[in-house]
Write a structure and sequence with these properties.
The protein is mostly helical and about 60 residues long. It has helices at about 15-25, 35-45, and strands at about 5, 10. It has one domain (about 5-45). A two-stranded antiparallel ribbon has the order 1-2. The longest helix has 13 residues, at about 35-45. Bound molecules: zinc ion (ZN). Zinc ion binds next to helix 2. This is DUF2197 domain-containing protein.
């Protein structure tokens, strides 16, 4: 099974944990390990620009 990364459009083989998540949530967006690392790095540098896991304020 391969997944296509939305950023570089490369296909990669997901880890068994990722594969489970993909089967549960097939419409979720997945990044290849390289892009995931890049996004995580960017998010650390400028957390206000990219939020990998947006947290909602308590209502
Ligand atoms: Zn990628």
């Amino acid at each position: 099974m391969t997944v296509t990364c939305i950023l570089c459009e490369d296909s990669f083989v997901p880890t068994s944990i990722q594969a489970k998540k993909i089967r549960k949530h097939p419409h979720r967006i997945f990044l290849c390990p390289a892009c995931h690392e890049r996004v995580a790095k960017k998010a650390k540098e400028s957390p206000h620009l990219i939020q990998v896991k947006p947290s909602l304020p308590h209502l």
